[in-house]
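Bumping with the actual sequence this time:
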Amino acid sequence: MKHVKLFKQYVNEKIEYSYSTINGKKIESPWSVIADNLKVFIKLIKEIPKTLESIKVQTGTSSFNPSSTEVKGSFNSSKINKVIKLVKDADKAFDKNDEVIHTYLLSSYYGAGGRNHNSDPAYISYRTKRSDDFGKAMSSGKHGSLDWF
């Protein structure tokens, strides 16, 4: 019963497209997206531009420097299915560690405003409570200074 969704969770599902602001103008990406639901995220992956250079998919569950697998473009159905399988496998790996992914991210390395946005390299990452806590601890200095010199 751990993964039963409440009605309010369905109603409040969130999809948010990334954007850049250039010269005061908001430029929204047609494919760079944040979602809080695996099924919705997979549907969005199926709609990525076939011309993306690559997608690096987070496959590890570590909060710091997790492992990843890169899938090179151009993206046909076979490569898109490979990306989807990697995402589903990562979701299962987080489940095995008793973690719940609350946010799925598909992002461009260059932001949403580039001329060749549909051929940018991209990456997929996830947010969990543990990764959020780790980020807060790092930014607060709990693990020491982030300065290298």
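The tokens above came from a reply further down the thread. The beta strands are 15-22, 25-35, 54-58, 68-72, 103-108, 121-127.
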